Amino acid sequence: MSHKGEDDGKEPVNEQAVANLYASMRSDINQLHSKITELEMEVSEHSLVINAIQPLDPSRRCYRMIGGVLVERTIKEVLPAVQRNKEGLEEVISRMNEALEKKKKELSEFEAKYKIRIRKADGDVKDEAGRKEGSAQGVLVGPAGEN
């Protein structure tokens, strides 16, 4: 998920290289956001399981999927493991959110450096700074899904 550009000390050579690098950065952000959403769904599922088995008798039999194999355990054994997994997922989500914010900041700095404006699907141009720059040269990039 790394991108070329400022990190390796080389500057993009032309508008197409800038546009490609910009698209790559946006793609990285979208992938990170998707992964965070996926992990948040897993945390939600863990919470449902915890809420379902917590009030039950700790010696009651339950089943847990471990590496594709369904094993029989007791609630007393399974509940702490599910809670640890949930906490681990929440920690990963927290770190990924920090990485996402860092990448968003890098993207906004990149947009400012190369005066990148995003062309909407209907042809309008969105200027990130909210101002029109008369004769300034910049790179115009379409929506992230276009190639």
From TrEMBL:
Region of interest (Disordered), residue spans: 124-147
Biased composition (Basic and acidic residues): 124-134
Keyword match Kinase: no
The keyword Secreted is annotated on this UniProt entry: no
Key words, A-Z: Chaperone, Coiled coil
UniProt GO MF annotations: unfolded protein binding
Pfam families tied to this protein: Prefoldin_2
Coiled coil: 86-113
InterPro entries given in the database record: PFD2, PFD_beta-like, Prefoldin
Protein name as it appears in the record: Prefoldin subunit 2
An annotated GO BP: response to cold
One GO cellular component, as annotated: prefoldin complex
Similarity annotation: Belongs to the prefoldin subunit beta family.
